[in-house]
């Protein structure tokens, strides 16, 4: 992990805490940007990099837990909560809604760094998944209308002649479309194509009929 491929956001209204965290992260070769309020964080332009958000519970403009709820629908970095006023209900709520950790001040540098590394690793994984899904969606858009009709029939388990009959085309034509679908979707096998269809949430409304040949 290099200083250029990630970012740690710090949101804490205590300037001394912001400076101390910034120094700690700098000593570990990690880039940090600090904010004194939730509003400053939300309004700021942020680098498009794997990230972690260190978030205080008590802020001047909004409770950290409420900020977690507000940004939950977007693509936000995994959160590590820090607080001097921790309680069990707050920690349960934070973790239940996806926080990586909930640390009560004073916490050890080791515990904080472990949480930060876990958060950044989690964000990398999420970003990779989003990128992969984006690539699959782009491949799907490159299918012809007929190929988009063929795909759900193929992954449903229908035999070629059953799928061809469903579409009113010849079995040979169906096989051509099926081959094109496999190639365009970069599917190595039928099982792979089924997994792709599931990721794209393509509805499958047919099933292989008993007794089909």
UniProtKB/TrEMBL annotation:
Occurrences of domain HTH luxR-type (ranges): 136-201
Biological processes annotated in GO: phosphorelay signal transduction system; regulation of DNA-templated transcription
Family annotation (InterPro entries): CheY-like_superfamily (IPR011006), Sig_transdc_resp-reg_C-effctor (IPR016032), Sig_transdc_resp-reg_receiver (IPR001789), Tscrpt_reg_LuxR_C (IPR000792), WH-like_DNA-bd_sf (IPR036388)
Keyword Lyase belongs to the record: no
Pfam families linked: GerE (PF00196), Response_reg (PF00072)
Chain ranges of the Response regulatory domain: 7-120
Record has DNA-binding as a keyword: yes
Location of 4-aspartylphosphate modifications: 56
GO molecular function term, any single one: DNA binding
Keywords: DNA-binding, Phosphoprotein, Transcription, Transcription regulation, Two-component regulatory system
Name used for this protein in its record: FixJ family two-component response regulator
Annotated source species: Rhizobium paranaense
Lineage, opening ranks: Bacteria, Pseudomonadati, Pseudomonadota, Alphaproteobacteria, Hyphomicrobiales
């Amino acid at each position: 992990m290099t200083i250029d491929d990630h970012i740690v956001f710090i949101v804490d209204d205590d300037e001394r805490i912001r400076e101390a965290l910034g120094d700690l992260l700098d000593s570990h070769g990690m880039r940090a940007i600090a904010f004194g309020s939730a509003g400053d964080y939300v309004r700021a332009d942020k680098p498009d990099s794997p990230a972690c958000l260190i978030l205080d519970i008590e802020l001047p403009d909004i409770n950290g837990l409420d900020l977690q709820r507000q940004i939950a629908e977007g693509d936000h970095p995994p959160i590590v909560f820090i607080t001097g006023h921790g309680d069990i209900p707050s920690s349960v709520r934070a973790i239940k809604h996806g926080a990586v950790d909930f640390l009560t001040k004073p916490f050890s540098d080791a515990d904080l760094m472990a949480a930060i590394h876990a958060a950044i690793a989690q964000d990398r994984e999420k970003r990779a998944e989003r990128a992969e899904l984006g690539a699959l969606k782009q491949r799907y858009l490159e299918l012809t209308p007929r190929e988009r009709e063929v795909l759900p029939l193929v992954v449903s388990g229908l035999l070629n002649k059953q799928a061809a009959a469903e579409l009113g085309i010849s079995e040979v034509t169906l096989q051509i479309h099926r081959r094109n679908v496999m190639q365009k979707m970069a599917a190595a096998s039928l099982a792979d194509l089924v997994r792709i269809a599931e990721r794209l949430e393509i509805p499958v409304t047919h099933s292989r009929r008993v007794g089909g040949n």
